[in-house]
Amino acid sequence: METTPQQPISPSLEDNLNRIKDTFSDCKDLAILPWSYGPNLESKAFSVYFFTLVQEKHMNYLKTSLQDLVMHEFGPATTVTLEDIVQFFSLNGVSSQSVVLLNDFEQAVHKVLNGHAVIFFDGWEQAISYAAKSIEARQVAEAINEATVQGPREGTVESLDKNIGMLRARIKSPDFKIEWFTAGKECKTDIMYGYMKNAVNPATLQEFQMRIDQIDKSIEITDPSYIEALIEDSTYSPFPQYRHTERTDTAATALMEGKIIVMAQGSPTILICPGLFVEFLMTSEDYYQRTIYASMIRLIRVVSFFISTMLPSIYIAFTTFHPLNPAILRQIDSYRLHKSPFGYFELVQQQAISISRAEKKALADK
Q1: Element (H, E) at 138
Q2: Residue 229 included in any domain
């Protein structure tokens, strides 16, 4: 069912030109180029685009359209009329460029902001849009923060399409589902979340989608970390509830384990939902090691974590409040008065000597 455009494009070329100029006033990198075509060049049109975003600044997109149209349907280009153009593109005529037919002025503005070249025709209440965006972007390289000895060295970049393409290249399955939405009144950031339909927990997916739907889409979101703050369970928890990665193999593995990933245009970060405690003690390199070796390394990490967090407190509690040796407490007070930085170390030595002497004495008494 065709929807009625909120701000329809005017059939008057002058009206559309004035609306474009008003909308993009003071935008010095906007290019508006008038064109003439048809018999005696009497038909008028103009194209609009940002020359800081387009691929080929001097490319004549209208000429390309007419050449495609003439090649497929008609005779010389000078005989092409507006009716021919309308008929050709309305019937989804083939073009050498990727063309989108627009009937809403806001759509046209959105396309221009996203690096498209939009052409308006005099006497036609629609416009055509060519994908022409091309800006300098970082090349695919190894993720700096997740360098590994074994495994692939493919990291994400700031292009959402490229990141999705790299994931599609790894997961060649129709069960890999991707859903999109746009956030922000000004940035209009494209955000996607993906999951494996045959692996994700339906209850988890339903809960995730409910939280996504509750997000105010007018909020300016430029990175997946914004999504993390908006959908997490406990806002004030000091512990992370989601994982982040810039490795496509890590994201692909998480998807196949039933996780949900979130990516945003302009950010290389992939948000993995949800995150478990033990997953923060794992690395992507573990998947490329033998099972026994990888399991042993993970176990060592877990044990080391508890030792590093609990052993100092256990040591302090034992040496400070040990109820079986009151003499130690007096020594501790003495060290505190002298403020010796080696007090506890020396105390441990003395305690070991005392225990050794006590054992020798017990053996002698026997």
Answers
A1: none
A2: yes
The mean-pLDDT minimum among 21-30, 117-126, 217-226, 228-237 falls in: 228-237
Domain boundary among 288, 307, 336: 288
- Choose the final residue of a domain: 288, 321, 340: 288
Q: Report phi then psi at 285, rounded to 5.
A: -70, -20
Domain housing 337: 291-365
- Sign of the Cα torsion 204, 207, 211, 213 reads positive
pLDDT at position 250 over 80: yes
Q: 38 and 111: one domain?
A: yes
User: Measured over all CA atoms, what is the biggest interatomic distance in the chain, rounded to whole angstroms?
Assistant: 124
Q: What are the φ/ψ torsions at residue 37 (nearest 5 degrees)?
A: -155, 175
Examine the domain organization and report whether 77 and 209 are in the same domain.
no
Q: Name the residue among 255, 249, 256 with its Cα closest to residue 284.
A: 249
Shared domain for 21 and 53, answered yes or no, is yes
Is the domain of 94 the same as that of 215? no
CA nearest to 59, candidates 124, 122, 119, 108: 119
Question: What are the distances in angstroms from CA 349 to CA 308, 354, 358?
Answer: 21, 9, 14
pLDDT at 322: 60
Angle between helices 202-213 and 224-231 in degrees, nearest 10:
100
Q: Are residues 312 and 257 in the same domain?
A: no
Judge whether 16 and 8 are in contact, CB under 8 Å. Answer: no
Are the C-beta atoms of 284 and 251 separated by less than 8 Å?
no
Name residues whose C-beta falls within 8 Å of residue 4's C-beta, 6 or more positions apart in sequence.
none
Do residue 168 and residue 274 come from a single domain?
yes
Q: Report the domain count for the chain.
A: 3
Residue at 171 is within a domain: yes
Show the DSSP H helices in 48-190 as ranges: 61-72, 82-90, 105-113, 160-170
pTM of the shown model? 0.69
Is 60 exceeded by the pLDDT of residue 1? Answer: no
Q: How crowded is residue 243: how many other Cβ atoms within 10 Å of its Cβ?
A: 21
Query: In DSSP terms, which residues pair with 141 in a beta bridge?
Result: none
d(CA 112, CA 122): 19
Q: Is beta strand 30-37 parallel, antiparallel or unpaired with respect to 243-245?
A: unpaired
